[in-house]
Amino acid sequence: MKHEMKARYPASSEVVLKMFSDPAFHTRKLEAMGLSKFTVLSQGLDGDEFHIRIERRVPLDAPGVVKKVVPAESSVVNEERWNLKKKTGRVIAEPKGIPIDMSCTASFKDDGKDCVITYVWDVRAKVPLIGGALEKFVCSDMERRFADETRAAIPLLAGYR
Known about the structure:
Number of strands: 7
Mean pLDDT: 95
Helix content: 25-40%
CATH architecture: 2-Layer Sandwich
Strand order of the largest sheet: 1-7-6-5-4-3-2
Number of helices: 3
CATH topology: Alpha-D-Glucose-1,6-Bisphosphate, Chain A, domain 4
Order of helices and strands: EHHEEEEEEH
């Protein structure tokens, strides 16, 4: 299932990318979201390429039949890669214990004084029959978490201007 999401930040793409390429930003964002169970597994900057890999515990509240393949809490490893020059990125999410593959491409565009990031996700369930329901649940849950992350990140922009 393809799923597109957009995030708008009240700053230029250069400022947003500067923030996204700071490992401290990622931990402050998660803390601002009230998450305390996370670990930075790796991070680095090589020229114009930044990457960070973080494992975090995520509570889940799956509906109906999807509950059969989704635990109440999962450990999710997110790997983010940002190309600061090209203003693009790639994110891979690996939820443990959930039969699904998730990855996306991202692009940063200036829109007036704002930056809009477009994420195009590819979410593929690896189970028959309820795969479509699982994909829809994951996309819906991701939308909510994505909005929370954006809200938590916006106040942190001030330190990168």
